[in-house]
Amino acid sequence: MTELARVVLIRRLDGIFMDRSLLLRPGSSTDLDPAPLLRPAEEFERLGDLAQAERARGLHASLR
């Protein structure tokens, strides 16, 4: 079950990397909200996948 959760999180993160419009604030065509990246980072860390947690945090930092 842990591996399945990890795969789902990786796919979600990959989707955001490929299409950052997934982070657009409602009603905006340019303003990104990086906050949704913090939850996956925490989940990756909880699952012990520190590399993916750092990847999510890095994207979050680059968008702030």
Characterise the protein shown here:
It is built from 3 helices and no strands. The chain is mostly helical. Helix 2 (38-47) packs antiparallel against helix 3 (50-63). The longest helix is centred in the first third of the chain and has 17 residues, at 2-18. The chain is elongated, with a radius of gyration of 12 Å.
Quaternary class: single chain
**How is the main sheet built?**
none
The beta-strand count equals 0
> What fraction of the residues are assigned to beta strands by DSSP?
under 5%
Number of helices: 3
**Low-pLDDT windows of residues:** none
Keywords:
64 residues, 0% strand, 64% helix, mainly alpha, 3 helices, elongated
List the helices and strands and how they pair.
Elements: H1 2-18, H2 38-47, H3 50-63
Explain briefly what this protein structure is.
The protein has helices at 2-18, 38-47, 50-63.
